[in-house]
Design brief:
alpha/beta; Spore Coat Polysaccharide Biosynthesis Protein SpsA, Chain A; 2 domains; 10-stranded mixed sheet; 10 strands
């Protein structure tokens, strides 16, 4: 593929695509409909076996902003790395092959970065069900932040990973910043963007927020990385393990950063355990990997419960240390049964009730 080097666009949008024939036209149309027009779309075909390549090349033939990049099937992580290596824009953004941008996504994000000169801009998003069109989640993570203000890393470190997703598609990055910290996406079946995002966010000096829901994340397709989370259940632990290594290397001897990333790693274990709880084999695999490898390696057993960042994580860790795999799985099966009815800490205590009582009786 030849690139026009006579003009560097303001934004490079990297779109990894693998067998997205059903959705890719709608995704690329959401790019074409942007109210901000100075962008390049690097559409990386990861060896698709359907008609994804034909649809991409239709766009490339009629709109010079769209570029078709082919690679042998290697995964979404290498596809994003491939696109990033070819990006020429001042800013870089990522869009999955089945997700959608709001028409003002590029406009609002570039305006925020231009105004604040921040390294990274993060927006709100919504999640919708592909089959029903129903909106499942309208995020409001950043309600307490001011638009137009640049936030220093030091202002956010204690709650950094609680404040934002670890996904790349709700963020826009300053390209010069990414060149300074050339982290790569991992070659994992899912969670391949976690280490990239955690590492770049922790390296960023400044961040800004746009509180509009500018991205629509599609679920229920059968091709989403999140839809495949139970296929290779250890990906999340591997991703956060790499994230932890990078963060601690960046912030050596900084206890606030260590506490933050350790809390996020602990949360990743409990979240992964819950995602796999209906499948005993993969759930056991997650538990054993954490119990026998990651927890000792991360030295979590040397840390008091109060070390971890929020009340729910502390409760989960307290119970985990006092029960068996079977007891923990029983509690999470109860949580899943009552999913959508939980309101907070009380509901976790209720679901963990049998574990809490039995552990107290054993002491």
């Amino acid at each position: 593929m030849d690139f026009d080097m006579s003009h560097n666009p303001r934004v490079s949008v990297i779109v990894p695509i693998y067998n997205n024939e059903k959705y890719i036209r709608e995704t690329l149309n959401s790019l074409k409909a942007q109210t901000f027009s100075d962008f390049e779309a690097l559409c990386v075909d990861d060896g698709s076996s359907d008609n994804s390549s034909g649809i991409i090349q239709e766009f490339a033939a009629t709109d010079q902003r769209f570029h078709y990049v082919f690679q042998e099937n290697s995964g979404a992580g290498p596809a994003r790395n491939n696109g990033l290596s070819k990006a020429t824009g001042e800013y870089v953004s990522f869009l999955d092959g089945d997700d959608l941008y709001h028409p003002d996504y590029l406009k609002r994000m570039t305006e925020a970065l231009d105004q604040t000169q921040a390294d990274v801009c993060i927006c709100e998003r919504e999640t919708f069900d592909s089959k029903t069109g129903q909106i499942l989640l309208k995020s409001a993570k950043y309600r307490d932040f001011d638009e137009g203000r640049v936030y220093q890393t030091g202002e956010l470190v204690d709650g950094y990973y609680d404040l934002m997703t670890v996904f790349c598609w709700d963020k826009m990055f300053r390209h010069s910043f990414l060149r300074k910290y050339p982290y790569e996406f991992q070659n994992l079946r899912h969670c391949n963007d976690v280490a990239f995002v955690c590492s770049t966010i922790s390296a960023a000096q400044t961040v800004c927020f746009v509180k509009e829901r500018l991205l629509r994340y599609r679920t229920g397709t059968g091709v989403s990385t999140q839809d495949k989370a139970t296929k290779q259940p250890l990906c999340a632990l591997q991703a956060f393990g790499k994230s932890r290594d990078n963060v601690l290397q960046l912030h050596q001897n900084d206890q606030a950063w260590q506490r933050t990333i350790d809390t996020r790693c602990a949360e990743a274990f409990f979240n992964t355990f819950q995602k796999n709880v209906k499948f005993e084999k993969s759930c056991r695999e997650v538990y054993d990997a954490f119990h026998n490898q990651y927890e000792p390696e991360w030295k979590f057993r040397e840390k008091p419960i109060r070390y971890f960042g929020n009340k729910i994580i502390r409760l989960k860790m307290w119970c985990y240390r006092r029960t068996s795999f079977d007891g923990m799985r029983k509690a999470y099966l109860k949580l899943n049964t009552e999913r959508g009815k939980r309101n907070g800490l009380y509901d976790y205590v209720k679901s963990y009730g049998a574990i809490v009582v039995s552990s107290l009786l054993r002491r």
